[in-house]
Write a structure and sequence with these properties.
- The protein has 474 residues and is of the alpha+beta class.
- It folds into 2 domains: 264 residues, Orthogonal Bundle (2-methylcitrate dehydratase PrpD), CATH 1.10.4100; 123 residues, 60s Ribosomal Protein L30, Chain: A, CATH 3.30.1330.120.
- Helices cover 50% and strands 6% of the residues.
- The strands form 2 sheets. It has a 4-stranded mixed sheet. A two-stranded antiparallel sheet has the order 1-2.
- Strand 1 and strand 2 form a beta hairpin.
- It is globular and about 70 Å long.
Length: 474
Amino acid sequence: MNKVQKPADLIARTSGETTERLVDCILSARLSDLDPATIQYAKTFLADSLVTGVGGVSNPGSRKVLNAAKKWDAGSTGNCRVLGRPNVSLSPHSAAMVNGFQIHCLEWDALHEPSVVIALCTPVAAILSEAQEGQEKLNDCLFALTMAVEVAVMFGAAAKGHPRFFRPSAAGVMGAAVAIGLLRGFDRDAMTRLLGLAYSQVSGTMQAHWEGSEALPMQIGIAARAALTAADLAEAGLAAPKDIVDGKFGYFALIEDGGDFDTSLQQFAKPWKITEVAHKPFPAGRATQATLTAIMDLQKEAGFTIDDVVSLTAYVPSLILLLVGRPYQPDMEGAYARLCLQCIAPMMIRHGAIDPGRFKQRYFATLQAVEDAKKVHVVLDENPDPNALAPQRIVIELENGRVLEAEIDAPFGSPSRPLNRADEIEKASLSFAAARFAAEPATVFNALDTSGEETLLTDILRLVTQPQDAEPCL
């Protein structure tokens, strides 16, 4: 009798060797490997995530998510606080969902540009819940956050094409899960299963981004919650797939259209990727930040107003066109507007800033805003890199015939043009004001600066969650 010949790919089951190498990298790292400068970066971007999450209270969608979370928690008690919301406590999973939404919903949170991963929102939301449950020390949380960013960036940087899934949630859940595993002291077996269980919950497509939907920050909340779920299941001993990176149905077969994870592994901690993270100084998609930087610089130089502008043309790489080249719509929601350069650029010229309080339909529908938008044009340049965010060339033609040009390779907030402490506090002040959160933002940064070995993350968290003199914007 002849044997049935099976396709080779049905016979061969790869062993998960790449996953094992990733786990080796994760478990070989120690808090003592982080030099003082790297720890300071972790503190800086933890603070940025916390204060940005407070501002997220001002987004109407965050109230909807909170209301849903309260229904999930009905009949149970929770002790996890929510950023910017005095007297609100939820279960760990529900708090991760709400905090994740709030940290990302204003498009104001930090990112790692080379990998196109907004790398802190998902891990921070998950870590906040874990730290409140276990009273974790701040330094351990900073190490976990640094490792989470490292792993999330590895998955993002290895990709070779345009994102199909939303990398802050897809790569973010992988990093966030690692952070929770480290805080719980997982061994090699548990960490391997944790990664498999986190991968099994990867979600969040680019369709929500494409449409400018409130579901976009929801995907961050789901990813943060999934990281906790994966850790709980791994701790309970649940089995998981192993060949999650380059298996037949692994991350770079399904989530990304191919990738080079070997190079990412070789670049582990060389340098620590949190040292390459960039602030978003303006509450709008990162793809808008180069144009906003050019406007800021050119207005200082030439002192023009929106009424002086005939046209503004942004020559951008294909990813920028994909992310923020969408047409202006007078009836758009705030989530769409934050990702629309035709809205963001004239808003910056007219007001000299991007105020999160302006992202309302009554503003977008004004004749003035509609006419301003017509002056902005987004044009594809010849950059062949499908993941490039820069450089971007901005050309502004004025009524008097003068033409202003700027090429921005490193926007304001990037590592080569970083925010200083005054800039960080100004951003935090705007965020607190948007949420009507009555606290002094400088106290958050000062508390992190003066923290010691025994400081708990909850000591810092109290400053952005405790009851205040004024009720937040609901």
